[in-house]
Design brief:
Number of domains of chain A: 2
Low-confidence stretches of chain A: none
Number of strands of chain A: 13
Distance between the termini of chain A: 32 Å
Order of helices and strands of chain B: EEEHEEHEHHHEHEEE
Oligomer: heterodimer
CATH architecture of chain B: 3-Layer(aba) Sandwich
Strand order of the largest sheet of chain B: 6-7-8-3-9-10
CATH topology of chain B: Rossmann fold
Distance between the termini of chain B: 17 Å
Largest sheet of chain B: 6 strands, mixed
Mean pLDDT of chain A: 90
Radius of gyration of chain B: 17 Å
Shape of chain B: globular
Radius of gyration of chain A: 29 Å
Mean pLDDT of chain B: 91
Strand content of chain B: 25-35%
Number of domains of chain B: 1
Strand content of chain A: 15-25%
Amino acid sequence: MFLAIRELLFAKTRYILIGLIMVLTASLIFIISGLAQGLSADNASSIQELQADLLILTKDAEGELTKSFIPMGEAQEIVDNQGDEHASTLAIRMMNATRNNSQQQLDIAMFATEPDSMLMPKITEGVSPTNQKQVVADTTLKQEGVKLGDKLTIGEASYTVSAFTSGQRYSHTPVVFIHNQGLDQVNAIAVQGDAHVEGSFDVMTKEDALQGIPSYSQEQASLNMMIIFLYVIAAFVLAVFFYVITLQKREQFGVLKALGANNSYLIQGLMGQVVLLAVVCIALGAAITVGIGALFPSDMPFHLELVTMLKPAIIMMIVSFIGALLSLYQVTRIDPIEAIEGAAA
Amino acid sequence: MTLILDHVTKTYTDGPNRFNALDEVSLEVKSGEFIAIVGPSGSGKSTMLSIAGALLSPTSGNVLLAGENITGLSSKEITKRRLEKIGFVFQAAHLVPYLKVKDQLNIIQVLAKKRVKHGSDLLTHFGLQHRLNNYPNELSGGQRQRVAIARALMNDPQIILADEPTASLDSKRGQDVVKLLAGEIKDRNKAGIMVTHDERVLSYADRIVTIRDGKIVKD
């Protein structure tokens, strides 16, 4: 590292410039990751957080929750077979609601289940519903002005918001948990542990069910594609930079080898530079992303935690190593004879 | 004997043509002896210097460095021999552009994994004590070549090889540099080989070896 550090300090400008590109790329990767996770949560956190392992759908729904219709009687039978501590019916309806008889229409996703169901979410504010007319709403509904005790009119019926929960969104709308009484069909039966059904039913995991949410996989795929492209770009930018720098330093490497520097010393120096550059740039990119994230409006679907930043950071490090490989190869190929003018035949 | 080239041949193949850059060359250089190698371009003198400096391995023949035959050694071992036994003074100094003068010498000890750095003593000896913290581009050509000589002495080598040390200098500075080099080789009892075109500096050499078409024609 004796040489590596001194060179970084001497040729500050060029390393700062390449560093800037790396910082921007890292920031963009973090921001898009945050957006992908935010959108994923906005679209499906209610399914991701569902207190169940498996979902039973009708076969002809082909994995799409909202296309699966199970008559209540049949659903109840399955629940009884599974044991009702480990199974609940689930009906999902995209609905409009009005608050306290105002004209404003609110988009909500209605999740109807048994009142004592395992699917009822953890309450963050208020008290659990005690009768069929009380509901639990996702906390994001507060942004539309809904408060505890407000009256929500959904379809024909009126309910009172008795509690709020958090992290329960479905198809970019807040979820309202409601008593399932009076429903004649449900979409699925949620099961903890193993599920045993036959005939016209399918058992799928929650992860599979996510793919059946409208636009979920398309949204994630397009964002993931951007992220993958950014990784590739980062690798190429680093590869080209170090390739050109190594070409430029060919003579120097020749001289150093003639003086007795072996390949492993020179490679350590180069890798040291790559690691230093990558670590500093990824850290700066992360810091910038956290700063920008704090400026985003609260209803923007942006979700980034330290743990979830770790994965892109590690991939960026790996990608930087891959980018440096070409230059490593070059360094090993340089012949010390190049230090002697006219001797390299 | 510090350096012996024993019937050294270096053959290059260019398609169907084979060409001997060096043809059965034998040479002995003793400690404290400074020899100059002269000859026209393409005569093989750079090839000879490269083989003597363990930068190139001969096609046939043996190279003995301080009594050890280095021809069969692995490239890792040969790199180690260069670091420990050989000092180089290159054309145009070939200093590392991003190292301060003191670090130009310290790098040798870093590579040799030695703790003690006596680079500043050597630089003082060469009258460069005021230039320790300068980069090569802040030095004159003569100063650069003096740093290069100090660097060549840093590892206390058995032999010192100089490749056209006066090429980038004017006549006066060129003479000064070769005079300095010759003096150090004598004082420190090293074996010295210099490849040069510059006839004005030949008077500092103990022996002049003329090479033509890969053969020594005059010694």
